[in-house]
Amino acid sequence: MSFVSPAFAPATTLTASRSFFGARAVSARPTPNVALRMNLAENGPANAAKLTKVALPAADVTRATNVNRVQEASVANVMPAAANGMGAFDPRITSTFTVVLATVAGLIFSRRKRDENKDLNQLMGSPMAMSDATAGNGSAAPKSFGDRLRGLIPPENERKKLFPLGLMFFVILFNYTILRDTKDVLVVTAAGAEIIPFLKTYCNLPGAILFTVWYSNLSNKLSREQLFYVCIIPFVLFFLAFGFFVYPNLHMLHPVQFAASLAAKLPPGFVAPIAILKNWTFAVFYTLAELWGSVVVSLLFWGFANEVTTVDEAKKYYPLFGLMANVALIFSGQYVRFVSDIRAKLPPGVDGWALSLKYLMSMIGVGGLVIIGCYYYMQRKVLTDPKLFSPRKAKSSKQKTKLGLVESAKYLGQSKYIRDLATLVIAYGMSINIVEVTWKSRLRAAYPDPNAYSTFMGNFSTCTGIVTFIMMLVGRFIFRKFGWGAAAVVTPLVLGVTGIMFFSLILFADTVSPFIAAIGTTPLIAAVMIGAAQNILSKSSKYSLFDPCKEMAYIPLDVEQKSKGKAAVDVIGNPLGKSGGSFIQQILIFSMGSLAASTPYLAVILFAIIGMWLAAAKSLDKQFSDFMMKETATVAEKVTSDTKAAVAE
């Protein structure tokens, strides 16, 4: 990779080398080339010692390549990951594994010309490229670290708005992680993972529809502030009531005898629907916990945030909200683990999970008060200040294109590009649904006690937050280094590679048992750990790579294609991806009698879905690159014509 350096003489070659143990050395020698060439390679200690050490002017060395792209290279120590007792949950191990898969994907797509990625980055207006270009042409002095740090702090007028908004977002996601972990503990330990596909289809979907109808009616009668309170307060009150009144009185609320009589009369395939009836309070909790993510996070918070923030503020601070989400995941996961471990200090005969549930739901109540308080403060102190908020006028000229189910299907059939994009969305939804349910069935077998299960889920959420935080930071590097195609296949490769290991441990437990015993564990625990790593890696790569890839794929389309394509994917792709995996598992459970008996078939279906996913990603990468190259050529032609016209004048 060639760089033009403003800090060294142009007739000098700089070679930077790092040893395996993290030592860094940089050497400089004359070269006839005008451009400075910087090679980063992993060498042994002996080779590293031979290099001549020189002092770099800064940690970040800005370079320009060719005449149409600017890059920033950072020379930093890379310390080898050390074991810290977390096993499969070591965030450095899991994030490194994802980066390695990204490297493999980059090699697969290495036949693409590097110029395509350069033109793509330039066309998309990389902020780093723009800042490097400014620094390289001497129009602005480079900023010091202190200046950059101060630049991240919002000015006083923005702090008054963004700090309460950020606190709202943090607490909402903190509560969401607690609810997401708790709902799994309740339903899986009580009825098994087989119940999850039925809950998603027959509880979550009707619940979402009913809430949509209810919300639409209330929105015509109440003010925006009243609607916020009316929506969030019932959630908080229910979760408090569940922890302090419902759960302690399950023996009076659950129809155990009636469910037992139904189970004796119906075939084994009806075990999951009967379990929903038997544990109906858990099903309600599961549905409302899922709705918290859709209603409170997406509808209430982001609707309010988009209303009170300007476009410039959103560009600066929304990415920080994304990082804040993973910080909330880390802290809430540790809180779940902490309260779940209370059972170790309780005397015999005390229901430790009931006490832990009270602590968890109490935090939901405290968080609800903080959310309501922040919203109330912003309504009184921010939205009334014309310096901080100016109501936007309604735009009637631009309306979102909405397609019905039939229109969406027709549009998908007509456009190969949109069809491939929808395949990516559907494949992810179906794949993650299959692997999550199968993994949670193994997790219940390993941790049947609710407190032990909850402790595990707390650590799982923390590690998911850490790995996702890391992957969001390195995701931009993967895009710049390997391009769209490589980034798009990281998520299916993660699911495929870890899926092979996970299902092998389940299907060939007797065969691998001696090898697993040699490392001091069992096939069940190994499957749980590999499944946990699979879910952590797939979610982190989804947030950091898959979602940006999906949104970037709309960029080269024209306005009509973009609006209709996104509408078609939203109407068909998202629902089919979420419910498709559930329907497949329901059919197999009804026909095979249990989820365990369905596991071999689920493995085959999973790998078939991943195969279609990879094929669609490869096809879409070619179309995406062709689109972007045409767009780049058009832009270059326009710039050339404008330049010629300016010279002629």
UniProtKB/TrEMBL annotation:
GO cellular component terms, semicolon-separated: membrane
Residues of the signal peptide: none
UniProt keyword Nucleotide-binding, yes or no: yes
Pfam families, alphabetized: TLC
InterPro entries: ADP_ATP_car_bac_type, MFS_trans_sf
Subcellular localization, as worded in the UniProt entry: Membrane
Transmembrane segments: 93-110, 162-179, 185-215, 227-247, 283-305, 317-336, 356-378, 421-439, 459-479, 486-509, 515-537, 587-616
Membrane topology of the entry: Multi-pass membrane protein
Keyword annotations: ATP-binding, Membrane, Nucleotide-binding, Transmembrane, Transmembrane helix, Transport
UniProt keyword annotation of Transmembrane present: yes
Domain of life: Eukaryota
Principal cellular location given in the protein's record: membrane
Record GO terms (molecular function): ATP binding; ATP:ADP antiporter activity
Record family assignment: Belongs to the ADP/ATP translocase tlc family.
NCBIfam families, per database record: AAA (TIGR00769)
PANTHER family registered for this protein in UniProt: ADP,ATP CARRIER PROTEIN 1, PTHR31187
Name of the featured protein: ADP,ATP carrier protein
